[in-house]
Amino acid sequence: MTRVLGYFSYRTAIAYPLAEIAKVGVIEDTIDRKPVVIFYAPGQLSALDKRLIADSKEVGSAAMFSAVVNGRQLTFDDYNGVISDNQTRSQWDVFGRAINGELMGTQLRPVLRSNVHFWFAWAAFKPETKVYERST
Q1: What is residue 52's DSSP assignment?
Q2: How far are the Cα atoms of 17, 53, 99 from residue 20, in angstroms, in the given order?
Q3: Which of 24, 36, 55, 87 could serve as 50's disulfide partner, Cβ 3.0–4.6 Å?
Q4: CB contact at 8 A, 65 and 12
């Protein structure tokens, strides 16, 4: 079953397939004229796959944040599994916390109305959803 990180507002509905996010680790986008960043982390196991979660397949997790810190827009990259911003080279975790570097201790603001869902369920309630595709 396809999982997506879905976002909706009164004018926008967009779904980011977790498989696409996993390929790059970080996705930057603009939604409703606001810069956002999505972080991916491997390791989360499916609670629906097997009788014991420990035996389940890995599905990963993702979260969306505002890319603006103290009025300054940051850009991010995934360097072999380590998420860093390009302005200060601070390192970030999937929860949007700077865990190392100049911005250590800073928390990115989570984007409300964004959550991980199964695509079939999301699409049933938000059929107007645009599915994110990376530009090549």
Answers
A1: S
A2: 5, 24, 25
A3: 55
A4: no
d(CA 20, CA 131): 11
Q: What percent of the chain has pLDDT over 70?
A: 96
* pLDDT at residue number 135: 76
Assign 3-class secondary structure to the chain.
CCEEEEEECCCCEEEEEHHHHHHHCEEEEEECCEEEEEEEECCCECCCCCCCHHHCCECCEEEEEECEECCEECCEEEECCEEEECCCCCEECCCCEEEECCCCCCECCECCCEEEEEHHHHHHHCCCCEECCCCC
Could you tell me the two tokens for 30?
């603009």
The bridge status of strand 98-100 relative to strand 114-118 is unpaired
Structural domains for the chain: 3-131 (2.102.10)
- pTM equals 0.89
Give the chain's count of helices (H) and strands (E).
Answer: 2, 13
